[in-house]
Amino acid sequence: MSDEEQAGGPAEDAPRRAADARPPEAGDKDKGRDKDRDRDRDKGRDAKAASDEGRADSGGESADSEADEKESERERAAGRFREHTRNPLAEESGEDGPTGLAAASRAHGDAKQRFVNVRDQNNFDRTHFDRAHIGDIYLRMDARQSGAGMRRGPVPDEELRGLRRAHVAPPGYEGLRNALRARRLLVLGAAPGTGRTSTALSLLDDVTRFAVEAPDAEPPADSRVWRVDPDDGVGRLADSLGGEEARRGTGYLLELSLTRPGVLPPDEIGLDGLAAALAGRNAFAVVVVTAGSAANQLLTGRYGMLCPPAPTQELLTTRLRERLEEHVAAAPDDSPPLEELLTRAEELADRKEVRDAVGLEDLRPAEAELFASLLAGRLLEDVSYEELLAGCRSLAADQAQEWFAGVDRALATVPADQEGSAGRTAALFHPVAFRIALAVLGGASHSTVASAAHLLTWELSVQGDPDNTPARPLFCDDPASDLALSRASLTSGSVEVAGTEVAARLIRYRGSALPGAVLTEVWDRHFPARAPVVRWLRLLADDPRPQVWMRAAVAAGELCVQDFDHGYAELIRPLAEASTPRRRFFAATTMDQAAGHASHRKAVHKLVDDWARYGTASLRWSAAMALGYGNAMATMGATLDALARIGVRDEGGQVAIASLNVVRLLALPDSAQVLRRMNDWTLHKYVEYQDLGLVTTVRLMLTSVDEVLFDESGSPLGDRGDRPLALALAATRPELVRPMADLMWTALNTARSREVAMDALESLLRAAVRGKDAERARPGLAALLPVLIAEEQDRRRLDWLLRRMMNDPENRLPDAQARALWHLAVPARGRTGEEERNG
Fold it and tell me: By percentage, how much of the chain surpasses pLDDT 90?
């Protein structure tokens, strides 16, 4: 290459160069580099891949044969090296295809956020604060609170007066009242615990007072509002209104349980008959049902309406005012006024620690009453701060206990020989299966959660009745009811399909504490359910979608924390020894999630270290993936030691997976230590360590940020997208530029790694001129390239590479972009006068 050609840069005479021309051989390696390091590296090269091109041999044909053999061996060494740099997660065969590391990392970061606020809190001891006295109020922290239940007969006037004072009307209350006045009958659907009964009583109180105050109305003989026995049903209530003894101007509250065996929802004709009978007596009725598939026919008819929950803040303020008014009335004159106490209570409720302990976006009436009592008790010093937090955590735990209590009792009422009993069993299991699936896969698409719920429904049904094949309910889904009954919400978002984002409806719990509370409830209180849940999680581990298997792996880690002995034996160890990379990755993620809990960190460290030292090939593979998260050892040094141990064993048989996880560690704050260790490996006397350092360097050049960044919070790389990791580090961490450039230079100047390192350098160059993040990738390349291309030989190599890219028939690099890349590598102050004249 002439000086004139070099001075002009790559864009001047590209047509004269062949696209597949051989790159310039490494020469003048001593210039600008440490001579001793080069000599050490040359001595340590693998004898089979060592280069001795200048050796003369007077043996004639034998010399040519020996040269050919060495050339063949160099090619084989380069081929082996290229194999080491392939994606170790793409080993699976079949239609499932390779495991996407970028999609898995994004799903992992999203899944961890569902448990980060309640870490080490979802397994708190429920018994240490299960009841308390706050002033004259007696509280029980138990979902199974005893109560009188629904009594048949009149509602006392004092209860109605208290209701008028304390009831918080839900949105749309006026519409509900108008509908009841116009139709005389209202079927009110809502989830249990949302205040539906209080709303129904308030509606009946309003409309019967209006009826009594009418000029021609006759006042009822005793109470204006009556509760009706649920066993009476709509038909019996209508019949009772036809008798002479029937009361006039009365409101009737009837709560129907449509899940009991043999109970059928009333049809439209029966409801019309009841409405006519009510009109004849100037009376009103509200039929309360649980929203769900069994009540759909009622709620979509002319009398049906949904009852929304009351607004949380107004509900909480009302309950706080009730509690504090009692204190202010009995307090001395110098005590703080009511408004000041309310302000202090609201400030206490808004503390992040308190909000995280509550973990619910919306409070139901009973929850708001409990929370208000706890806040008032804390202000009045009847409750300690620790008891306040414990009581707040009990809200989500009590909700989970309420969801799962009594499911088996309901199943026991289904006769085994009854026609359709198998389908009814599956339908009863479906709501709890949906809540477990939502706890495990929250944040995924609604269809994904629903599909997983049906898989779990099958497993639960088989466990509950192993002698019969369970029926698959085909039309038991009711998305609106699932949302209401499971305190879930749908949002618009996107999911990744084959590397492309597509629009989707995402579903999650309305509360950060609910996923952990549900998993704790299932695992700790319902031991027979563990077996079907474990089988189900293993099915999810085989799902090719990262949004499924990665979320399931994180949730499995939370389950294992509740009982690590059982989780390790049933989930972690079997999957860590599996033959497929995805299952081993699943086990590694589960171990990492468990390591996030201080209570289990040492155990995880010991297990991963044992896997890395003494485990089978599958266990060492799993250990490497666990180490890549950065939590599986006490220090970064110990983590790198374990990865090196895995990478060099068996003549570097697992150098690919070890190098991949070394690169994952570069996304963590201590990336400078990782680069120093990589440099030490390239200088090592054993070729296996050299290969580990070189392979890791090449993989660094080929890896994007989104493949390794599994926790974006607080990371300067969080907005770096799919840009190359090396360029993102160069742009955000200037002190890493020199160590990375030295490692890349070594890979470019080593015989067995030269070819693949050149391809990796090409990918870095293209990232700065092509794609949506090109402009954002360019600062990193501008920082890295001048340090990497510091000598004349380096410039020749870059010149050759740019010309090859410009002549690539499938992906030609435009001349202007080639010139821009050249100027990034050779800044103006470093160019010769001839280079300046030629541009």
Answer: 49
